[in-house]
Design brief:
The chain has 889 residues and is of the alpha+beta class. The chain contains 29 helices and 29 strands. Strand 2 (50-54) and strand 3 form a beta hairpin.
């Protein structure tokens, strides 16, 4: 259970809720916050009337005469449907969670981490850097939110306040501010950063084996290189129009950074099989501590996205199609809020005519289209964080041979119903010292490899974190620039402002162009020879400025492509460019199984001719497992019998289930019995192969990296990793482990799904359990959970599959969904009204609303809904109209 859920459990487990669920009064309490979608209402902040048209799913389309009123209207409708969610997020992102949930150590620790990172401080520093228009829009949005809050008690805003109010005092709700919106961008950046756990894992693994060649070999085996020849990057060299095209010239000039693990202490060669045992405990402790920062979008395996765009040369309409389905953690309600924002008369004075997906709490549209262009996003995943080992003395730290004063500040954490806590935050030139607030983070400082002449720091070094998101930037400007972009040049100008979190941006326009742009503030590192010095894969030496970041990649040299010859562009968190690209974006990509499957299907559909919007949606729901065709032949070939440790009875018992895999097409719809068995075998295989060596948070999660780890092992029958260290009298081989995995999976599913393998179904194992945070988690009183949480839902798909309903193989016998397509959209540039979408849940966060989860069944079935955009289509689809008016004089 996540730390955030633990906070929720402790916060509400002592609530007195019996009266709420046993009396008729509960109905009134739950219905009380439901907003009015029709009629007329006076809104003090408005300068002119705003019209809100909602369709049968409650999706608002907002019409206004000027941009300020347009964003006031958006703030108003966000607050109508999602204010508690907004308030919860702002407490998290400002390090004030304990103010909302009360006396709870987990909440206080989370607040301490967020205060140390300074999300809210950075958001406040960003505000004056933004364009005047952006600041105006943020304030207008806040005015709209506050207009809805005016005159309403907490119970009028959400039943969640009614429940929380049984434990903490909630007399009034503070007003919304522009910085509340900007702080949300920091939470996005934190959850969507990558590489930092890999950086820790490499260091701890190397240290535990004592350095030398065995450690290098083990790290290389557990963190394989990206398979560029099998899974193409987003921008192959022959397609690049910027960035990647510079590589040959820069390499010829000797300007390309390189990295080599030299100049390090090598105290001796240890046993590779011993390293994994010794590293598991420290690694688990560090990552548990880092997870004290609440995840609002989700983290880890399965958090990514698919997006692709197809040229009109390959479509049935002759115009481009653009698809996007961001993969995030599931929540109730979902992370996205669908909305249309329309100026009554679109022009220079009021340029907005845009529809798509927004985040409640943030004005504008994050993903969608306007009348001229469409855009989609996936996580680029560059390495934008580095841990620095710091030699700290009394109030100072070592810097190029000199003791430099630490920067310090004191902050007070207020606790509802409890005593406030004071924390001192210390920072170096690199960033805050996170080992002050993250329990056992000093483990990293104690074991990270350093050169033999490094300064000594007792039992280890303190650790600071440098992160691009802690430098104030202008990402908020990018949202409005994207919303009003009219062509490729406008789009790239907007992308240049999209600093943090760096996202792959795909593009299409009504003129027939398609394109891709990598944006973001991405650091460059010195081309030194120290371990990880050039690429950020290992902790860095804070006392030596030669290890500092040297700058950022110029925007003009980031990968970009317009109208590639093959007629489509695919981004699915794979490598952005090939190894010839002159800069290191990261070494830790997703390994490209999803992206390559999408490419292959688009090739097939393109040859067949006339790709349709329906085929794009069908591809979003593709369930083919890209690793199964490699693993299944090995599973079918392994002998079942005494040679592999099975009795005749066990062999027959296992063979009956293994027959499911013979002829299986490797797809994973929810009704598939073969998929159920395959995934159980995969989970057992990882446990049998690695559990004796990799435990806790470094246990294999079953994602694409483990495809690349296990694939080569299948070709090596006697690899030391097959041997189970828990059985010292036996040396296991590949075939024995495969046979045991087949048998163990048969036992497992017989117990959970029944004796007849033909009746097994993947969806009976693989289920979506949506929880409303913070009141839907385990340990919360059952009636409260039942109010907020929908029933579990069987789904198809799986980990590193296009329909990316990921699960964590490290959680034995638990196949529940941990990450998923948080929405799906297909934009038809030939007819924007013919575009389609579906959200994970629905527009409302009010449990009694008809739009609380009203899209989930359609989402699970792979269905989509029409997406009206033009004024006529919106009015035709309209079910309710709310007129927001300035008050009469």
């Amino acid at each position: 259970m996540s730390r955030l859920r633990t906070v929720a459990v402790v916060a509400v487990s002592v609530l007195v809720v019996t009266a709420l669920v046993l009396t008729v009064a509960v109905v009134a309490l739950v219905r009380q916050p439901l907003p009015d979608y029709s009629g007329e209402v006076d809104v003090a902040a408005l300068g002119a009337e705003v019209r809100v048209v909602r369709d049968e799913r409650g999706i608002p389309q907002v019409y206004a005469d000027n941009p300020e009123d347009l964003f006031r209207g958006q703030g108003y409708v966000h607050a109508q449907d999602r204010f508690f969610e907004m308030d919860f997020r702002r407490h998290v992102t400002s390090g004030r969670l304990a103010e909302l949930v009360g006396e709870n150590q987990a909440a206080i620790e989370a607040d301490a981490v967020v205060r140390t990172l300074g999300w809210r401080r950075v958001a406040e520093a960003e505000l004056p850097l933004l364009e005047p228009a952006t600041r105006t829009y943020l304030q207008a949005y806040a005015d709209g939110v506050n207009a809805y809050l005016d005159g309403r008690s907490p119970a009028d805003l959400s039943v969640a306040y009614t429940v929380l109010g049984q434990q903490v005092e909630l007399d009034s709700i503070e007003r919304w501010e522009p910085a509340d919106s900007l702080a949300w961008l920091k939470a996005m950046a934190w959850d969507l950063k990558t590489n930092y756990t890999d950086e820790i894992g490499r260091a701890l693994t190397y240290d535990a084996v004592g350095g030398g060649e065995p450690a290098d070999a083990l790290v290389a085996q557990l963190y394989p290189e990206y398979p560029y020849t099998r899974h193409l990057p987003i921008v192959p060299p022959e397609q690049a129009t910027a960035g990647a095209a510079l590589a040959p010239a820069l390499r010829a000039q000797g300007e390309v950074p390189t990295s080599a693990p030299t100049g390090l202490a090598d105290p001796g060669v240890g046993d590779v099989t011993e390293v994994l045992d010794s590293v598991a405990g420290p690694m688990a402790a560090v990552t548990r501590a880092l997870d004290a920062v609440p995840a609002l979008l989700g983290r880890g395996e399965g958090i990514g996205s698919n997006s692709w765009v197809v040229s009109g040369e390959l479509t049935a309409t002759g115009s481009p199609l653009l698809a996007n389905d961001p993969h995030l953690a599931g929540s109730m309600p979902g992370i996205w809020y669908q909305v249309g924002l329309h100026c009554t008369d679109v022009g220079e004075a009021c340029p907005f005519d845009v529809a798509g997906y927004s985040f409640s709490g943030l004005p504008g549209v994050v993903v969608g289209h306007n009348a001229d262009i469409a855009w989609g996003v996936t996580n680029l995943g560059p390495d934008v964080t580095d841990f620095f080992l710091e030699r700290v003395g009394s109030g100072t730290y070592l810097r190029d041979g000199q003791q430099v004063p630490l920067e310090t500040r004191t902050e007070t954490i207020q606790v509802a119903g409890g005593e406030p806590r004071e924390i001192e935050i210390r920072s170096t030139v690199h960033g805050p010292i996170v080992s002050d607030v993250i329990d056992q983070a000093d483990t990293l400082g104690a074991v990270a490899p350093v050169p033999p002449d490094s300064p000594i720091q007792g039992t280890g070094y303190e650790v600071s974190l440098q992160w691009t998101a802690l430098t104030p930037g202008r990402t908020a400007d990018a949202i409005f620039a994207l919303n009003t972009a009219a062509d490729w040049d406008d789009f790239r100008a907007a992308a240049q402002l999209f600093e943090v979190p760096a996202q792959n941006l795909v593009y299409a326009d009504t003129e027939g162009n398609i394109g891709y742009q990598a944006p973001g503030v991405i650091p460059t590192r010195t081309p030194g020879t120290g371990r990880g010095q050039a690429d950020g894969t290992w902790p860095r030496l804070g006392w030596d400025s030669a290890w500092d970041w040297t700058g950022t990649i110029p925007f003009e040299e980031l990968p970009s492509v317009l109208n590639p010859e093959e007629g489509f562009i695919v981004t699915a968190n794979q490598a952005v460019a090939g190894p010839e690209y002159p800069y290191v974006l990261t070494r830790d990509w997703d390994y490209g199984y999803r992206s390559q499957r999408i490419r292959e299907r688009l090739d097939e559909l393109g040859v067949a001719g006339g790709i349709t919007s329906a085929q794009m949606s069908e591809l979003q729901n593709d369930t083919r497992n890209g690793f199964a065709p490699l693993l299944v032949p090995s599973l079918l070939a392994v002998p079942l019998g005494t040679s592999t440790g099975l009795t005749p009875e066990a062999a027959d018992f296992t063979s009956e289930a293994r027959e499911l895999l013979d002829g299986w097409d490797a797809t994973q719809p929810q009704e598939s019995s073969a998929a159920a068995y395959y995934n159980a075998v995969w989970s057992q295989l990882l446990e049998l192969t690695f559990e004796d060596e990799l435990q806790g948070s470094i246990a294999p999660n079953g994602g694409a990296r483990w495809f690349e780890v296990v694939g080569p092992l299948l070709q090596n029958d006697e690899s030391v990793l097959w041997d189970d260290q828990r059985t010292p009298a036996v040396v296991e081989t590949r075939d024995q482990i495969l046979a045991q995995a087949l048998y163990a999976a048969r036992l497992e599913l017989t117990s959970s799904l029944g004796k007849n393998p033909e009746e097994w179904e993947w969806g009976k194992l693989h289920q979506l359990e949506l929880e409303a945070e913070p009141l839907g988690g385990d340990g919360v009183p059952g009636p409260v959970r039942e109010l907020f949480n929908p029933d579990p839902l069987p789904v198809g798909g799986g980990t590193s599959i296009v329909n990316a309903t990921s699960w964590n193989a490290a959680l034995m016998d638990d196949y529940s969904v941990t990450g998923l397509p948080s929405m799906r959209m297909v934009v038809d540039l030939a007819d924007l009204d013919a575009s389609t979408w579906v959200d994970l849940t629905g527009i409302s966060a009010h449990p009694w609303s008809p739009h609380y989860g009203d899209q989930t069944q359609a989402w699970a079935a792979g269905e989509t809904f029409p997406w009206p955009f033009s004024r006529g289509a919106v009015d035709e689809a309209g079910q309710n109209t709310l007129l927001l008016r300035p008050p009469a004089a």
